[in-house]
Each structure stands twice: as structure tokens, then as C-alpha cells.
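tool_log.txt
---
The assistant was asked to compare two proteins side by side. It first ran the structure predictor on the initial sequence, then on the second. Raw inputs and outputs are pasted verbatim so the downstream comparison step can read them without reformatting.
(1)
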Amino acid sequence: MTVIIDFPWYFVILCLLLGVAYAVLLYWLGLRRQKEEPPFSRGLTIGLSALRCIAVAAIAFLFLAPLVKRQQNRKEKPIVVVAQDNSKSLDYCADSAFYHDQFAADLDALCERLGKDFDVVRYSYGARVMKLPADDLVPYGDQLTDMGAVVDEVRQHYYHRNVGALVLTGDGIFNQGRNPVGMASELTFPVYTVAMGDTTVRHDAAIADIRFNRIAYLGNNFPIDITVNAAKLKGQHSTLSVSLDGRKLFSKQITFADDLFSTTENVVLEAQKTGVLNFVVEIAPLPSEQNVRNNRRIIPIEVIDGHQKIAIIAAAPHPDVAALRAAIERNQNFEADFFLAKDFSKNPKDYDLLILHQLPSKTAEAGLDVAALLKSEVSTLFILGAQTDLARLNALHAGLEVYSRIERQNEVSALFNKDFTFFTLDDDKVQSISSFPPLLSPFGEYKLDGNGQTLFWAKVGAVNSRMPLVAVTQQQGHRAVFIAGEGLWRWRLADWQNNQTHDNFDQLIDKLVVFTALRVNKEKLRVDMKHLFGQSEAVTIEAQLYNDNYEPVNTPDAELTLKSADGNTTEKKFFFNRTADGYALNLGQLPSGNYKYTASTRFNGHALSSSGSFVVEEQQMEALNLVANHSLLYTMATTTGGQMVDAHNVAQIEELLHQRDDMKTIIYSETRYSDMLNLPMIFILITLLLGVEWFLRKYNGEV
């Protein structure tokens, strides 16, 4: 240990002189002036003076901010990381009893012997990587295998450490994450693999993959692509079926033409009712199959009633109306009715969208009250033109206001706004629309609501006017679209003339109508969660509560009631945790099955609730392929300088590791600098000096 100061060496002498001067003044001059005779004997006075001198000198020396330099040596034995496969595939194989009992004991014994010469760290990997011991570890219970994750965990956690080797046990099957072979090649230490599982190819048919859309619309057809794999079943037959609530919707016999067979069937079904529907996809098991866990899958599809009614109300007949109606009715989910303003007497709430062509109008509207239409909170699409009464439009505060002192129309083209985010348009559609002929737009100063966005700017000639031509707004769940120009019929004709199709124009109108007519959820308590969870996946639920201004709040407590859909389990209650602007709940892993939930709370004296359902699927990813991939394990070992051993000979790992010359203890030499003020011994020494001095003075009757 070395003491370092930033001052010249003679400052230490000054500290000692300061201590001497303080002691002389206190004991040789101060006390003797107060009394005729010295209060202590000469020897005691010298001792007390020495104690005070050393204490004062030490305190003065600390003001020089001295540093203490210390040299430390630390030994680190080689680290051996043992990562054991905990996936379900090992529980399905023929040697599962051996892996549960004898192999587990052999591995524990190996780790104990290695611990005498190395630092042994144990991990378990499957769907997640866990450091052992882990209290919640179920032996061979993970429904997924991510081998790359454990390699990455070791590489990152033990970076620049004295890692001697990674011992990786497993069957070489992974169904999640990156390929572990490429990741292992980046390691700076060898990998020793322990080959487990069975490499025998057995008779098996499986639902290998299903591709489907999570949402379908009522009355529409929707596709499901089902991939079926089969091994060693050449010449045999099985039946692929899709059923709902016990009723078969699709059935087809499949003949396995080869021993390694794969086919994909495209199944088209009709959405006949709304809600979350759980379709069962199954390939009928054959007598020769030894693994039937992968023959069945459940897929949830949410069917939404997408049929929407649209009212087109015009101040007067106009070719724009025909163009709009033709574009809208191409979508089979939309039904469009046309009315002149003077003839409209329907309840606006019977429609999902009102298209107002040049309304409010400068001409008489036969009693049509546009303000009353807006109060119905039905979404609205405004088309402005020469007959639009801009003053009355501004008075509606609908989202776009146009201030003009003269009645004049500008010919304006469309210029796409790249910052628009409410929905997307294909690039080819944008280019086509930008080339369409000009619309006639009211001249004036445009003011768009702060929550609005411009889809197309109005371009006058080659100049961007920065005035919106097509814009959308959204206020507290109410949506509105503004097309500030008439002559849309020219756009549809130009689309056909330039591209021999109406698709570009029709898609623009369809996007605007879908966005505007979409039924916005106005419930004050809303639950956001997936409809399908894997058995090894934590079920997480988020919820939001809104006040009367639709601002998020989370002041009241919220709870969730959960029960199985079949009613066989007891109803359970959970309380949500509060987040920054809502609620969250983690139910952890649940058993497979169908569940129903109800979220509830009380706010402003009202009881609010939201119900729904979800499915926890019994994942069979580990059952899809039970053929061990020992070639992958061999490649991982040989490319990193290690070796592969059989699970029955796992004890060989000890001999192989001891044969390595590079697994040696490393001595690290560290130089540390610390402030002497941080050393407790300094304060103990000063306190001890002053304490002894005080005791001697007290004992001799002088304090």
C-alpha cells in the first residue's frame, strides 16, 4: 500500500509541526497559565501532548486529500458452463425415463466432480434460458426450444471472462430463434455437446403449419392454408378436416405418395357468425402412428360484421355522385343509398357514413339541417364545390374551415403528403392520382383542425399551395373527411383512360370510406389482448379507462374475472396493476383451453365492464419433429474445437476437459486508488487517540 499526495513532501512536516504547536499551546502554555502548579505529572503531560499531536497532525494530513494505492491479485478458475435441454421433445422420446432418472443423476455427478477444478455454472434452456437452480423448473416441460438463446446468453454474460468450455446437452432440435451453429462459431471457447434423443424416423402425420388471417368479415369467404407432413406412411390415406363447434366445414382425403410427404391445402370457408370462432384443424390419426400429438391444431379467427350502410346526399344531381357510388359498391361490405337533400328524411343513425356533396349548399335544401346531421355523431365525408356555402360550413366547426372574400374556383391537382399516417396508399396508386386532371376547388384560406392530417395537398400549376385538397380529421371518436374540390368523375374516367382500370380511383375512395365509416369503439372501459396464446406463453392483458372527454384515467381499481368457457373450473378474480395511463395484468401461463373474461370497475358512480374470450393452445411444436438432429450437435462441437459424446457416456466430458492445455487459472493484477478519507481505520485511529486522551484527563480529574 502506497500513500500519494499532490503536495510537496514538506507539507507532511508542516502537518507534524501543526500538531506539535497545538499540543504545546494546550498542555505546556494554556493549562500552566490557568494554575500555579502543573495539573499533570511531567510524564503524563508528555503522553497527552503526544496523543493530541498525532491526532491533530492526522486531521491536518487528511486536508491534503491523500490517495492510497493498493495492488491486488485475484485468481479466476476456468468457467465451465453446463446448459441442459429442458424441452418437451425429450419427454416424448423413447428414452425419456432414462433422461429423467439416470442421465439427470450422471449430469449432477459430473458437475460436482468438475466443480473441484473449475467454476461450474448451470443453465436450462427451452422456451427460455434460466440459471439453475430454478424453483419453477418442470423437468423437460418447455413447449419450445431456442438453442441460439442459450449460446447468446453465455457469449454476452461471460464476455472477457475465463470461460473454458460450454457443455451443451440436447437433441439438436430447435423450433425458435436463430440457428445455433452460426452463433456458436462466434464463441472464443469450445462447445462440447451431449447427444440426446432418438434419430429414428417413425411413422407420423402432422399438421406442420397453418397460415390464416386473424380477422374475417361476416358473410365473406376467407382462406386457410394448411400444410400437412407425413413420414414413412407411403401409400396410406388419412382425412384432413376443419370443424367448428363439432360441425365439419371441410373434409378431404389425402394420400401420402412418398415416405417423406408434404402438401398444402387451401381451404376456403364462409364467415357465418360474428365473434371469436375457434376452428379445429385435424389430420385423422393412423393406427401405425406413434405420435398423434401433432395431428390437431386450434386456430381462433375473429369474425366482424363489416357490412356498412352509406348515404350519399347531394344538393343537386352531379356526375360525382355516380363515380362515388360505383367506387363504393365495388366493396361487397358497403351498401350505398343516394338522396337529394330535399328528399332525405331518414334517421342519420341508420347509416355508418354520410357523404355530403356540396352541402351545406347556397341553394335551398328543403329543410335539411346539416348541423343536426352532425349532432348524430355519424362520420361524415364532405365534398366541396362551387355550390358549397363556405360561411355555413365554417359555422359547423366540422374540422375544415375555408375563408374567402370572392367566389372563385381554382383548378388544383393532387400532391401526395408523405407525412400522412392514418392509412397507407400504394406508390403506384399515388403516382396515378397525382397525374389525374385538376379538380375545381373553392378559392380561399384553409384552416384544418389541429387533429387533422392532409392526404393530398392542392397543387396550383406546379406550385404547392400548402392548402389541403384531401384531408381527414378525428375528434373524440368522430371522423370526417374533406375533399376540397368537385370533378371526381374526371378522375375515374382518367384512371380508365390512362390505366384501363378504375382501381386507382376506387382504392382511394375505398380507403377514405373504410377509415371514415369504421365504427370507433366508444366504450369507456376497453380491454386489449390477443385471442390466442401458447401454453408456454404468459397471458397478458391491458385495459384502458376513459372519462367523459375520452381522456385516459386509472384512478379507480379494476378487476378481472376469469373462467373456462366450458364452466368446469372455478371462477377466479384478479386485480389489474396500474400503468402510466391504464391498467395491465399478467396471468402467467395457463392450462390449455378456452377462457372467458370480464373486466370491471366503477367510475363516477357507474359500473363499467368489458367481456371477451381467448384460447390457450396446447402447443405441439415439440411434437412436430421428434427425430434428433445429432449432425447439428456434431457441427457445433467440431467447428469450435470441442467434441460430441453420447448421453450414456456423459462422464467422458470430465476427461476431455482435463486434457485441454488452455483451461488454466488466470491471475488478474489490479491497481486501485482510493481516497484515504474512505478508509475506516483512519477515523478509528483518530477517535482512539482522542478517546484515550480524554480518558486519561478524566481519570486525573482534568477535562
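(2)
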Amino acid sequence: MTTARVIDETPSPDRAIGYEITDGKVHPQAWIAPSHNTTADGGLLMSTQDFVAWSKALGSDQLLPQREIQRMWEPVRFRDGRLAGTTALRFGLGWMLPHEPNLPRMAQHKGAWQGFSTYIARLLDTKLTIAVLTNMEDEPSNPAQIGHDIMPLIVQN
């Protein structure tokens, strides 16, 4: 991975900017504050090539041993034995683990920040990753719905 970094304020012609809709008009998302964009939970930038490399690394021992990576995709168990979440949606380590009868076992995550929104789903048995990345705030772009809609099309083929 050569492009991944925490966001900075340096203008770059090869970097997308986030957008929002106000009063029916699309315009660049205003920055909240540079200090809020310095962590990976909302300020991590990378190219699509690096995103693909990250996804491939999740299926190898390149980042961590596979037994440790697999722990991310297991439901978290509380000390009293209960599992985090509900039967339909359990929670792993940083991943949501939905149970959808017509779809294979998967881990997913979504997020939105500063005019960008994302949805990532990883089919755990095939290691196929579906990513929907937008540079529009979450509500009008709804990447989770897009990803959810295309999932059955990909799984069937």
C-alpha cells in the first residue's frame, strides 16, 4: 500500500472531495475542523488500488495470522456468555455480522464522514469483497443499500 494516509489539508488534484446537499443544491462538504480528520475512523485516505491490496491482505497472513483475522468475524461474547447484537445482526471486532438466510456468511461495515460514505461487505467463505465508496453524504447516496442490492446478483453468479 503506497497511498494510504491520514487526511491532511494539503490540496491534491488526485483526491476526491466530499459533497453534501443543502436546500436541494449539491456543494462541497464544509470541513468541521482539521483536528477531527486525523484518525482512521474518518480520515483515512487511500487509492482504490490500495483498498484492493488491503482486502487481499485480509485473506492472507500478510497483516496478521489468519486465526487472528478470523476472530474479527466472530460474534463478540460478553463475560456473562451473551453474544453482542441480535440474532439477525451480531457484532464482531469492528465488523457487523448479519444473518441473512438467502445470502452467504458475511462481515460488513459502513460509515460516513465529511461528505463521504462507504459500505464494505466481505463474503467470509469466498473472500469476495464488495465495496461501495461515494463522495456524497450518506443519506442521498446510501452505499449500504446499493451494496445490499447488488449482493444477490453477485452471489448468484
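---
observation on (2): The beta strands are 5-6, 19-22, 25-28, 44-45, 89-91, 96-98, 106-113, 116-123, 128-134. Residues 49-156 form one domain.
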